[in-house]
Write a sequence for this structure.
């Protein structure tokens, strides 16, 4: 079973977070996790090659954005939202706010 | 005299902004402009080669972060702060808040 390592959120460099979010696919993963909660890799892969997915999730983990846990044969990814909010206040709101998802605009007052 | 082009802030991709901020030196330039106001390239270069500076400022301009204007022989760089705040609410605060400058912690209540 694969084991994943995750940095302390306080050890994460700001530039590493911005680098992780500079790729459209990784940014989309983070947005999806923020809106839908924990998901396995299959739900997020969009049929991309396994090696590509491994790379993107490693970058996201190393930047402190995502925590991956194994549950049986599944790899469940969770946004480290509360920790991120403490370390980088406003970051998650910024990520979600820059392109407002359709379901939010439909219910906006 | 060199002329610079700047994208409409609404045409800027979120990923491009994050990419521009993923480099420690570029992030430092943005923080410095946010705290000190418009500055020429010499004040920001820290003795880096001209070609390196040209590259970094081009990335910052293309990401909509910085506007460069020529005044005589000087190239004055300004953070597009109001436009950024409208397009990416919270971004500048996030950039400044991730490492609080000493002068801000001294005056914080």
């Amino acid at each position: 079973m694969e084991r994943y390592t995750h940095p302390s959120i306080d050890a994460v460099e700001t530039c590493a977070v911005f680098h992780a979010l500079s790729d459209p696919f990784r940014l989309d993963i983070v947005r999806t996790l923020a809106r839908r909660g924990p998901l396995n890799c299959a739900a997020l892969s969009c049929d991309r090659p396994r090696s590509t997915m491994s790379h993107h999730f490693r970058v996201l983990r190393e930047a402190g954005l995502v925590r991956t846990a194994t549950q049986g044969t599944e790899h469940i990814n969770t946004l480290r939202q509360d920790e991120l909010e403490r370390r980088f206040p406003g970051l998650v709101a910024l990520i979600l706010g820059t392109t407002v998802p359709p379901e939010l605009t439909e219910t906006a007052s």
User: Anything to note?
Assistant: The CA atoms of residues 37 and 78 of chain B lie 7 Å apart. The mean pLDDT of chain B is 86.
